[in-house]
Here is the input.
Amino acid sequence: MASERKYPLLTVFCGRRSQAEQSGLPFEFNSPGDMVEQLGNPEGAECPACGVIMTFGGMAERRSSPSIDRFEPDRGYTAANTWWICHQCNTRKSNSNTDGLIRGLQRRIRDPRLLILRNDNLEAWIRLVSTVLIRSEESRL
Here is the structure.
């Protein structure tokens, strides 16, 4: 746990590389530095999906902690298919592809109780879905 706070980028890098290996997915980053070079440094950056300032920290800051996300989960960890978003948005998105995200948003529009039960809000969902759709299309070009 102490190493997570001391070397957060290394922790993210090793965790995602291990996840990719276990799932048989591509992982195209050679080091934490390579990941930062290709995707940018997330520390202090704004989450592109919700606008919160991302900072590595302990459990209290976990919601705003930077997290690597894949636009299309089955395409693996490549520079074109990944981005930094906050932990809360990554949790919201889960392993959904763009179609799954749209279905999730539609469910919340039809049944707002889902938002209340999960202490969530519709505006955050709309921003997340629209941002993912735009970025996903850009990654395919």
Remarks:
- DSSP finds seven helices and two strands in the chain.
- The mean pLDDT is 84.
- The CA atoms of residues 105 and 125 lie 6 Å apart.
